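Database export, one record per block. Field names are fixed; values are copied verbatim from the stored entry.
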Amino acid sequence: MYETLHEQGEQSAGKSAEDTFPGKMLIEHAPGIKEMIEHTGARSILDYGAGKGLGYKQRNIKLNKTLEVGSIQDYWGVDEIRCYDPGYEPFSQLPDQPYDGVICTDVLEHITEPDVPWVIDEMFSYARKFVYANVACYPAVKSLPNGQNVHCTVHPPEWWAGLVHAVAMRHTDIAYRLVMSAKTGRRKKFGFGKNRKTVYHTTERLV
C-alpha cells in the first residue's frame, strides 16, 4: 500500500505522488540531529524510512526566524547521507554497511506493532555512534488505500520510551535520542480543533 501511495499519490486527498511521503519531516528535526552529530563526531548518516528524501534536495532552508541554511547536508557537516525506504523503489535496498548515525523521522508509528521492536533493533544495528528518532503518539489525518489510519501503532510516550530503552540496552555503545509528540486538549469529532496542542517528550542516552 505504501508503494501504491508513493507511485500514485494520496488520491483521496488530491495529493500527487511527489507530495505523498516526500520526506521533508526531517527538516523539523534537523537541529536535534545536528546536536547528536556534533556530540558523537558522526560523518555519515543513514536516513531509515526517508520517504522520497526531498528534504535533502531543498536549498536555502529556513530552520527558524533567524537561521537559514544552504542545505541539510551543509548544515550537518557530514560527508555522506544514505536514504532507505522500502516503499519507494529508488531507496528500497537495505544498505550493506553501518553508518555513524541512523535517523528515523515520521516512521515508527506507521509500522505494525509486532514489527516495531525488530525494526528499532535493525536501526541500532546499522548505527556506529547514534540513533535519532521521533514518533507521533496520536492518529494521523492520512489513511492507507484500505481505509486504515497510517498511524497504525499509537501509544503514549511512556510506551515508546520503554520499548526503545529495552532495545538500546542491547546496544550500549550507541547514543540515542527519541522525541515523542502527543496531543493535549479535547479532540473534535472531525479534526483536532483549535484547543489541541502538541506536547513533546524526549528521552535520550548520550555515551
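Remark 1: Residues 161 and 203 are 7 Å apart (CA to CA).
Remark 2: The chain has five helices and eight strands.
End of record.
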